[in-house]
Amino acid sequence: MLLKYYHRLCFIFHRKGIWPAAQFLLSRLIFRMLVTLLYEIDLTHYTEPKPNLDHGVKLLIFARQNANEITPEIKEFLGDDQLFLDGLAQKDVLFVLERDGQYANFGFIVYETRQSKILDVEPGIPILCNDFTHPNFRGQGLHVVSLKLRLDWLRDQKTATALIEVHPKNYASQKGIEKAGFTFVKKVYAFIFFFKFALLAVGKKGITYKAKII
Protein backbone atom coordinates (compact mmCIF):
# COMPACT_ATOMS: atom_id res chain seq x y z
CA MET A 1 0.00 0.00 0.00
CA LEU A 2 2.78 2.45 0.93
CA LEU A 3 4.61 1.64 -2.30
CA LYS A 4 1.45 2.40 -4.26
CA TYR A 5 1.13 5.82 -2.61
CA TYR A 6 4.82 6.51 -3.22
CA HIS A 7 4.29 5.85 -6.93
CA ARG A 8 1.25 8.09 -6.90
CA LEU A 9 3.18 10.86 -5.17
CA CYS A 10 5.96 10.64 -7.77
CA PHE A 11 3.40 10.65 -10.57
CA ILE A 12 1.70 13.79 -9.24
CA PHE A 13 5.05 15.52 -8.71
CA HIS A 14 6.25 14.86 -12.25
CA ARG A 15 2.87 15.67 -13.82
CA LYS A 16 1.74 18.68 -11.76
CA GLY A 17 4.64 19.94 -9.69
CA ILE A 18 5.72 20.24 -6.08
CA TRP A 19 2.69 22.03 -4.57
CA PRO A 20 0.04 19.48 -5.71
CA ALA A 21 2.41 16.72 -4.58
CA ALA A 22 2.78 18.37 -1.16
CA GLN A 23 -1.01 18.73 -0.86
CA PHE A 24 -1.44 15.04 -1.69
CA LEU A 25 1.18 14.05 0.88
CA LEU A 26 -0.36 16.17 3.64
CA SER A 27 -3.87 14.91 2.86
CA ARG A 28 -2.73 11.31 3.22
CA LEU A 29 -0.42 11.68 6.22
CA ILE A 30 -2.44 14.09 8.38
CA PHE A 31 -6.09 14.66 7.44
CA ARG A 32 -8.50 14.58 4.55
CA MET A 33 -12.26 14.71 4.22
CA LEU A 34 -14.34 12.79 1.71
CA VAL A 35 -18.01 13.43 0.92
CA THR A 36 -19.71 11.08 -1.52
CA LEU A 37 -23.03 9.55 -2.50
CA LEU A 38 -23.30 5.78 -2.77
CA TYR A 39 -25.73 4.07 -5.16
CA GLU A 40 -26.54 0.36 -5.47
CA ILE A 41 -28.05 -2.00 -8.05
CA ASP A 42 -29.37 -5.54 -7.60
CA LEU A 43 -28.05 -7.48 -10.60
CA THR A 44 -30.07 -10.59 -9.79
CA HIS A 45 -33.10 -8.63 -11.04
CA TYR A 46 -31.28 -6.66 -13.73
CA THR A 47 -33.16 -7.33 -16.98
CA GLU A 48 -31.75 -4.65 -19.28
CA PRO A 49 -30.65 -6.04 -22.67
CA LYS A 50 -27.01 -5.76 -23.70
CA PRO A 51 -26.48 -2.19 -24.95
CA ASN A 52 -26.20 -1.71 -28.70
CA LEU A 53 -23.28 0.49 -29.66
CA ASP A 54 -23.94 3.29 -32.13
CA HIS A 55 -22.17 3.31 -35.47
CA GLY A 56 -18.59 4.42 -34.96
CA VAL A 57 -18.48 3.43 -31.25
CA LYS A 58 -16.05 0.71 -30.20
CA LEU A 59 -15.63 -0.94 -26.79
CA LEU A 60 -12.23 -1.89 -25.38
CA ILE A 61 -12.01 -3.97 -22.18
CA PHE A 62 -8.75 -4.42 -20.28
CA ALA A 63 -8.17 -6.81 -17.39
CA ARG A 64 -5.28 -8.86 -16.03
CA GLN A 65 -5.07 -11.03 -19.16
CA ASN A 66 -4.52 -8.17 -21.61
CA ALA A 67 -3.30 -5.26 -19.49
CA ASN A 68 -0.07 -5.23 -21.50
CA GLU A 69 -2.10 -4.11 -24.54
CA ILE A 70 -2.89 -0.72 -22.99
CA THR A 71 -1.15 1.81 -25.22
CA PRO A 72 0.62 5.03 -24.18
CA GLU A 73 -2.22 6.91 -25.90
CA ILE A 74 -4.80 5.25 -23.64
CA LYS A 75 -2.69 6.03 -20.56
CA GLU A 76 -2.52 9.65 -21.65
CA PHE A 77 -6.32 9.67 -22.05
CA LEU A 78 -6.70 8.28 -18.53
CA GLY A 79 -4.64 11.14 -17.09
CA ASP A 80 -4.23 10.85 -13.32
CA ASP A 81 -6.55 7.83 -13.31
CA GLN A 82 -3.90 5.70 -15.00
CA LEU A 83 -2.71 5.10 -11.43
CA PHE A 84 -5.68 2.75 -11.07
CA LEU A 85 -4.21 0.46 -13.74
CA ASP A 86 -2.26 -1.28 -10.96
CA GLY A 87 -5.53 -2.88 -9.89
CA LEU A 88 -5.78 -4.75 -13.19
CA ALA A 89 -3.11 -7.10 -11.87
CA GLN A 90 -5.78 -8.28 -9.42
CA LYS A 91 -9.48 -8.29 -10.38
CA ASP A 92 -10.13 -4.73 -11.53
CA VAL A 93 -11.32 -4.01 -15.09
CA LEU A 94 -11.05 -0.96 -17.36
CA PHE A 95 -13.66 -0.12 -20.02
CA VAL A 96 -12.77 2.36 -22.77
CA LEU A 97 -15.13 3.65 -25.46
CA GLU A 98 -13.89 4.99 -28.75
CA ARG A 99 -16.01 7.14 -31.04
CA ASP A 100 -14.91 7.61 -34.64
CA GLY A 101 -11.38 6.55 -33.76
CA GLN A 102 -11.02 8.89 -30.77
CA TYR A 103 -11.01 7.93 -27.10
CA ALA A 104 -14.28 9.26 -25.72
CA ASN A 105 -15.06 7.64 -22.36
CA PHE A 106 -13.57 5.37 -19.73
CA GLY A 107 -14.63 3.79 -16.45
CA PHE A 108 -13.34 1.18 -14.02
CA ILE A 109 -14.74 -1.72 -12.05
CA VAL A 110 -12.74 -2.10 -8.82
CA TYR A 111 -12.96 -4.63 -6.02
CA GLU A 112 -10.75 -4.79 -2.92
CA THR A 113 -9.60 -1.19 -2.54
CA ARG A 114 -8.87 1.23 0.27
CA GLN A 115 -11.86 3.23 -0.90
CA SER A 116 -14.07 0.20 -0.23
CA LYS A 117 -12.90 0.20 3.37
CA ILE A 118 -13.44 3.93 3.72
CA LEU A 119 -16.99 3.61 2.39
CA ASP A 120 -17.62 0.61 4.66
CA VAL A 121 -18.43 -1.64 1.70
CA GLU A 122 -18.53 -5.40 2.22
CA PRO A 123 -15.46 -7.19 0.79
CA GLY A 124 -15.88 -8.45 -2.75
CA ILE A 125 -18.64 -6.09 -3.86
CA PRO A 126 -17.55 -4.31 -7.07
CA ILE A 127 -17.61 -0.53 -7.32
CA LEU A 128 -17.97 1.30 -10.65
CA CYS A 129 -15.77 4.36 -10.43
CA ASN A 130 -13.50 6.94 -12.09
CA ASP A 131 -15.92 7.54 -14.96
CA PHE A 132 -14.88 10.19 -17.44
CA THR A 133 -16.23 11.41 -20.77
CA HIS A 134 -14.09 13.68 -22.94
CA PRO A 135 -15.69 17.14 -23.24
CA ASN A 136 -15.95 16.72 -27.03
CA PHE A 137 -18.28 13.74 -26.53
CA ARG A 138 -20.46 14.83 -23.63
CA GLY A 139 -24.22 14.97 -24.10
CA GLN A 140 -24.14 11.88 -26.34
CA GLY A 141 -25.18 9.32 -23.73
CA LEU A 142 -21.80 7.60 -23.50
CA HIS A 143 -21.72 7.71 -19.69
CA VAL A 144 -24.95 5.70 -19.44
CA VAL A 145 -23.77 3.32 -22.18
CA SER A 146 -20.52 2.72 -20.28
CA LEU A 147 -22.39 2.03 -17.04
CA LYS A 148 -24.75 -0.42 -18.75
CA LEU A 149 -21.88 -2.21 -20.48
CA ARG A 150 -20.15 -2.73 -17.14
CA LEU A 151 -23.37 -3.88 -15.51
CA ASP A 152 -23.93 -6.34 -18.34
CA TRP A 153 -20.36 -7.62 -17.89
CA LEU A 154 -20.89 -8.04 -14.14
CA ARG A 155 -24.17 -9.86 -14.75
CA ASP A 156 -22.30 -12.31 -17.00
CA GLN A 157 -19.88 -12.85 -14.09
CA LYS A 158 -22.86 -13.85 -11.89
CA THR A 159 -22.37 -10.79 -9.69
CA ALA A 160 -25.29 -10.13 -7.34
CA THR A 161 -24.72 -6.49 -6.37
CA ALA A 162 -22.74 -3.52 -7.65
CA LEU A 163 -22.14 -0.06 -6.24
CA ILE A 164 -21.16 3.31 -7.63
CA GLU A 165 -20.14 6.52 -5.89
CA VAL A 166 -20.43 10.10 -7.07
CA HIS A 167 -19.73 13.57 -5.72
CA PRO A 168 -22.87 15.22 -4.28
CA LYS A 169 -22.57 18.18 -6.67
CA ASN A 170 -22.03 16.10 -9.81
CA TYR A 171 -25.70 16.29 -10.80
CA ALA A 172 -25.16 15.23 -14.42
CA SER A 173 -23.51 11.98 -13.34
CA GLN A 174 -26.23 11.34 -10.76
CA LYS A 175 -28.85 11.55 -13.51
CA GLY A 176 -26.89 9.08 -15.64
CA ILE A 177 -26.41 6.71 -12.70
CA GLU A 178 -30.13 6.67 -11.95
CA LYS A 179 -30.92 6.24 -15.65
CA ALA A 180 -28.67 3.16 -15.68
CA GLY A 181 -30.79 1.60 -12.93
CA PHE A 182 -28.97 2.43 -9.68
CA THR A 183 -30.81 3.55 -6.56
CA PHE A 184 -29.47 5.87 -3.87
CA VAL A 185 -28.26 4.13 -0.72
CA LYS A 186 -26.49 6.64 1.51
CA LYS A 187 -24.42 9.78 1.81
CA VAL A 188 -21.02 9.28 3.41
CA TYR A 189 -18.87 11.84 5.20
CA ALA A 190 -15.45 10.34 5.91
CA PHE A 191 -12.90 12.12 8.10
CA ILE A 192 -9.55 10.36 7.72
CA PHE A 193 -6.69 10.95 10.17
CA PHE A 194 -3.04 9.94 9.86
CA PHE A 195 -3.71 7.63 6.90
CA LYS A 196 -5.20 4.94 9.13
CA PHE A 197 -8.18 6.10 11.19
CA ALA A 198 -11.59 7.10 9.83
CA LEU A 199 -14.69 8.59 11.38
CA LEU A 200 -17.71 7.97 9.18
CA ALA A 201 -20.98 9.88 9.28
CA VAL A 202 -23.47 7.95 7.17
CA GLY A 203 -27.07 8.74 6.43
CA LYS A 204 -29.97 8.52 4.04
CA LYS A 205 -32.43 10.30 6.29
CA GLY A 206 -30.84 10.20 9.74
CA ILE A 207 -27.12 10.17 10.49
CA THR A 208 -25.17 7.36 12.12
CA TYR A 209 -21.51 7.52 13.16
CA LYS A 210 -18.82 4.89 13.00
CA ALA A 211 -15.11 4.91 13.79
CA LYS A 212 -12.82 2.36 12.14
CA ILE A 213 -9.27 1.51 11.21
CA ILE A 214 -8.76 1.42 7.43
Keyphrases for this structure?
globular; alpha+beta; 214 residues; Aminopeptidase; single chain
Gist?
The protein is of the alpha+beta class and 214 residues long. The chain is built from six helices and nine strands, in the order ααββαββαβαβαβββ.
How would you describe this protein?
The protein is α+β, with helices and mostly antiparallel strands. The protein has a single domain (2-213), classed as Gcn5-related N-acetyltransferase (GNAT) (Aminopeptidase, 3-Layer(aba) Sandwich). It is built from 6 helices and 9 strands, in the order H-H-E-E-H-E-E-H-E-H-E-H-E-E-E. It has helices at 2-16, 18-29, 72-78, 114-118, 142-156, 171-179; strands spanning 31-42, 57-62, 93-99, 102-110, 127-133, 161-166, 183-193, 197-203, 207-213. Strand 7 and strand 8 (197-203) form a beta hairpin. Helix 1 (2-16) runs antiparallel to helix 2. The relative contact order is 0.18. The mean pLDDT is 87.
Q: How much helix, percentage-wise, in residues?
A: 25-40%
CATH architecture: 3-Layer(aba) Sandwich
Per the CATH scheme, the topology name is Aminopeptidase
Q: What's the gyration radius in Å? A: 18 Å
Question: Stretches where pLDDT falls below 50 for ≥5 residues?
Answer: none
Report on the biggest sheet: 9 strands, mixed
Mean pLDDT: 87
**Could you say which overall geometry the principal axes of the C-alpha atoms support?**
globular
Topology as H/E string?
HHEEHEEHEHEHEEE
As laid out across the biggest beta sheet, the strand order is: 2-3-4-5-6-1-7-8-9
Oligomer: single chain
Q: How many strands appear in the DSSP assignment?
A: 9
